[in-house]
Amino acid sequence: xxxxxxxxxxxxxxxxxxxxxxxxxxxxxxxxxxxxxxxxxxxxxxxxxxxxxxxxxxxxxxxxxxxxxxxxxxxxxxxxxxxxxxxxxxxxxxxxxxxxxxxxxxxxxxxxxxxxxxxxxxxxxxxxxxxxxxxxxxxxxxxxxxxxxxxxxxxxxxxxxxxxxxxxxxxxxxxxxxxxxxxxxxxxxxxxxxxxxxxxxxxxxxxxxxxxxxxxxxxxxxxxxxxxxxxxxxxxxxxxxxxxxxxxxxxxxx
Length: 254
Known about the structure:
Blueprint: E1 10-17, E2 46-53, E3 60-63, H1 72-82, E4 87-90, H2 93-107, E5 117-120, H3 121-128, H4 136-144, H5 153-160, H6 165-189, H7 199-203, E6 218-225, E7 229-236, E8 242-250
Parallel strand pairs: 1-4, 4-5
Antiparallel strand pairs: 1-2, 2-3, 6-7, 7-8
Helix pairs in contact: 4-6, 5-6
């Protein structure tokens, strides 16, 4: 099979889900709510999905239908988008967004998605930085002086119980802004992250090019040593990512 080389297709996405009703005796923090307290007949589903491609300004969206309130068609349509990507990026995507979509496909009898490699910005920020908070809103306010849109729990209630189209439109705009902020956040910080995919293998510049952007334009930053090996440390002149280059030697001489 011939693998076509191309510019990596990076997909930023976000989902919004509906809550479930439960019987409780009181409210507060550190409360334990059992599954048998969920009100019978409650379903959980995805209300909307928003996404954009890296390098493009347009944010796309799909929703469950204000009266239909079923994500089956929406998720099937979004699957076609996902399977075109080389990398998907979401904030807490591995733990939340991807699992939410997988859960709905299981519930609805749909086949699994051929997910591409995921680069979760929440995991990456927690690994490489020491911010007081890793919430998307806080990170964007700190780095860009602008945060997420305003949504209130009542908006979710209005969508689910009152079938309020204005509330749904508000949520879609809220989700769209999250995607825009996500892309901006990722592109600001990605040079610090160890990439999940070697872009050089996608673009055809080879495994020794910059794994973050695929550029061959780099400079040596000295030698990195491990217990048994020595590597060139290189800095990409295009995206400024620092990465492990050629193997210099092994301590056993091989």
